[in-house]
């Protein structure tokens, strides 16, 4: 099996970004990602995007170039870019995560810690400053998968 490239990044939303724009962004991303074989999850908190995207190298490179040029966000910081044996979000072409209230303080703390970390290119493969946030995103994905299976 070919290893999957996984990128985790944070960015700041453009001024005036709305909840309806977030839902539209996630819906369009889900359609486009499905065509490209990309999976992932998106969390939006305190005007920040936290996104995990995963896929084949050529599709990921194209998507990252598009993300860099997207005017809906800025200050993109890649916090992890590495190969994984399998996908974290294999059934989501783009899942939109709603943050449970009890998780928000921990996520905010991790966001602050990321802001303090150098954006050094060599650090991308080794620094994972948001372990709680990514684990929470995975738990919500797994819960959703269980619920979907129970409904079928």
Q: Tally of extended strands? A: 5
Q: Output the strand order for the largest sheet.
A: 4-1-3-2-5
Mean pLDDT: 86
Work out the helicity level. 40-55%
Report the span from N to C terminus: 29 Å
- Compute the gyration radius: what is it? 15 Å
Structural class by sheet pairing and helices? alpha+beta
> How many distinct domains?
1
Shape: globular
Q: How many H/I helical runs? A: 4
The percentage of residues in β strands lies in 25-35%
Order of helices and strands: EHEEHEEHH
Overview of this protein structure:
By secondary structure, this protein is an alpha+beta fold. It has helices at residues 19-36, 57-69, 104-116, 131-151, and strands at 4-13, 39-45, 48-55, 73-84, 95-97. It has a five-stranded mixed β-sheet with strand order 4-1-3-2-5, with helices on both faces. It is globular, with a radius of gyration of 15 Å. Residues 121-126 have low confidence and may be disordered.
Pick out its properties.
152 residues; alpha+beta; Alpha-Beta Plaits; 5-stranded mixed β-sheet; 4 helices; 26% strand; globular
Overview in brief:
The protein is of the alpha+beta class and 152 residues long.
List the helices and strands and how they pair.
Elements: E1 4-13, H1 19-36, E2 39-45, E3 48-55, H2 57-69, E4 73-84, E5 95-97, H3 104-116, H4 131-151
Parallel strand pairs: 2-5
Antiparallel strand pairs: 1-3, 1-4, 2-3
């Amino acid at each position: 099996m070919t290893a999957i490239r996984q990128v985790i990044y944070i960015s700041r939303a453009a001024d005036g970004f709305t909840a309806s724009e977030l839902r539209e962004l996630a819906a369009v991303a889900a359609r486009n990602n499905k065509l490209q074989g990309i999976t992932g999850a998106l969390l939006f908190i305190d005007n920040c995007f936290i996104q995990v995207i995963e896929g084949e190298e050529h599709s990921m490179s194209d998507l990252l170039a598009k993300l860099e040029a997207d005017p809906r966000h800025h200050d993109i910081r890649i916090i992890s870019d590495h190969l994984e044996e399998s996908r974290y979000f294999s059934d989501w072409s783009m899942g939109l995560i709603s943050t449970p209230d009890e998780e928000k303080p921990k996520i905010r703390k991790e966001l602050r810690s990321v802001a303090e970390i150098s954006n050094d290119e060599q650090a991308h493969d080794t620094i994972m400053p948001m372990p709680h946030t990514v684990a929470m995103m995975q738990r919500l994905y797994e819960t959703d998968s269980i619920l979907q299976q129970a409904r079928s």
